[in-house]
Specification:
The protein is about 30% helix and about 30% strand. The protein is built from four helices and seven strands. It has helices spanning about 35-50, 55-60, 85-95, 105-120; strands spanning about 1-5, 15-20, 65-75, 100, 140-150, 155-170, 175-185. Strand 3, helix 3 and strand 4 form a beta-alpha-beta unit. Helix 1 (about 35-50) crosses helix 3. The longest helix is centred in the N-terminal third of the chain and has 17 residues, at about 35-50. InterPro entries: LpoB.
């Protein structure tokens, strides 16, 4: 579906064309990290983490699914990346797998704790949710997104390396390390980057 929009301040004859795309379509205009990269990397990493021995070992030893939390994913790339979008892709894929349970992040927990304080003051006793009932995480996912650029004139190769680690919160043991790499060739004639 194409739309042409005209603005009163635009120069005569100029127009903007907008085309709606399917949210899961593969689009790459600039060659920078984008929603497709985030979705594909999170899917690949989740497949890796759920296929490793740590999961079966934990379930065998504890007779329950492990509880995870996503910690800090650092952007060490050359460009601005909204890491929160990537974190949500990881959380969604892990939760929807049905293989693990998840607890809220630090910021989300603070909002919930504030709500419990409000309930203690304002909600009826039979509907209040009291403190001390939170589920603790067994493992934390941490990681980084790094990049390397190789450029000559109008030719550029962008290389991204995404590393994730799963750390046992009880003893700080790393039980899984995953890696995904993306390489993109970007060329633009007549324009320097």
């Amino acid at each position: 579906m194409n739309f042409s929009l005209f603005s009163g301040c635009a120069s005569s004859g100029s127009s903007i064309s907008v085309q709606r795309l399917a949210e899961n379509s593969t689009t790459d205009i600039s060659g920078d990290w984008n929603d497709t990269d985030s979705r594909l990397v999170s899917k690949a990493m989740i497949e890796q983490v759920l296929a490793e021995a740590w999961l079966e070992n934990f379930i065998h030893d504890n007779q329950r699914k492990p509880v995870l939390i996503v910690g800090r994913i650092k952007n060490r790339s050359h460009e601005h990346i909204n890491v929160q979008t990537f974190v949500k892709d990881i959380e969604r894929a892990l939760i929807n797998s049905g293989e693990v349970d998840f607890v809220a992040s630090t910021d989300e927990r603070q909002q919930v704790r504030d709500e419990r304080i409000d309930q203690a003051l304002n909600a009826s006793e039979d509907t209040q949710k009291g403190p001390g009932q939170e589920t603790g995480a067994d493992f934390m996912v941490i990681g980084s997104i790094a990049s390397i650029i190789d450029q000559d004139g109008g030719e550029k190769v962008k290389f991204y390396q995404i590393n994730l680690e799963l750390i046992n919160l009880e003893n700080n043991r790393k039980v899984w390390i995953g890696e995904k790499k993306i390489k993109k060739s970007v060329s633009q004639s007549g324009v320097t980057f």
